[in-house]
Amino acid sequence: MARVGGDTASARPVGVPEAGPAPAVQRLRSSRWRDPRLAVGVVFVAASVVLGARVLAAADDTVAVWSLGNDVPAGSQLTSGDVTVSRVHFENAADAAHYFDGDAEIPSGLVVDHDLAAGELLARSALAEPVSRATSEVPVPLTDGVYPADLEIGDRVDIWVTPTDEAARRRESDLVFHDVPVLQANLSDAALSGTTPVVVVGLDSDQAASLDEDLTAFETGSVTLIRVGG
């Protein structure tokens, strides 16, 4: 039988495609999530976040205190509408105790003992018990007297009289009024005008009982005002 096309070894079955070159074999690569450098980077970023949070927390050492949202005249009863919360950094932590905690309510029943300006911090000393209407208001002249230069309304004072008579001066000074509130003080005005400074203090009914004798004491000596309390 005749053969077409030469050698039978090179013959292919009909319908079978010619085989191409074998595909290249690629080596499986490990997951990038298992790369130790990536793990080190994640740890470094996490540590940085934690450290940054701690630094920010340490830097925020401010304290919430009440401050005035508007001007408030002396004698007014302070309300929550007059104040706002401010955060303040105190160099000395003990100084914060002199102001009202911004997280607490303003004490009720107290009045402002001197004019307050918007923006200033609300000091505890700025509020005082309202003076009873039964209180006697007594003017005390301070001719040649001794008193704190920064005396303000709301301060509480002891009033002493030292005899001006040379013989009587040998005895101790007399305590005329003890722990009485200052209701008025024209010290700065008197200094500018050259007039006699006068301080008006309030007396309760017990203190006013001996008022005649106390007023006589002012005529026998010089007055000394000593601020008490804090």
Explain what the structure shows.
With 230 residues, this protein is an alpha+beta fold. Among the domains are: 66 residues, Antifreeze-like/N-acetylneuraminic acid synthase C-terminal domain (Type Iii Antifreeze Protein Isoform Hplc 12), CATH 3.90.1210; 93 residues. The strands form 3 sheets. Strands 5-8-7-6-9 form a 5-stranded antiparallel beta sheet. The longest helix is centred in the first third of the chain and has 24 residues. It is elongated, with a radius of gyration of 44 Å.
Give a concise summary.
The protein is of the alpha+beta class and 230 residues long.
* Overall average residue pLDDT: 76
Shape annotation:
elongated
Low-confidence stretches: 1-9
Topology, number of strands = 9
- Across the major sheet, the strand order is 5-8-7-6-9
Spatial separation of the terminal alpha carbons: 134 Å
Secondary structure topology:
Elements (H helix, E strand, L loop, with lengths): L35 H24 L3 E6 L14 E6 L22 E2 L14 E2 L7 E6 L14 E8 L10 E12 L1 H7 L4 E6 L1 H4 L2 H8 L2 E8 L2
Antiparallel strand pairs: 1-2, 3-4, 5-8, 6-7, 6-9, 7-8
List keywords for this structure.
alpha+beta; single chain; elongated; 19% helix; Type Iii Antifreeze Protein Isoform Hplc 12; 230 residues; disordered N terminus; two-stranded antiparallel ribbon
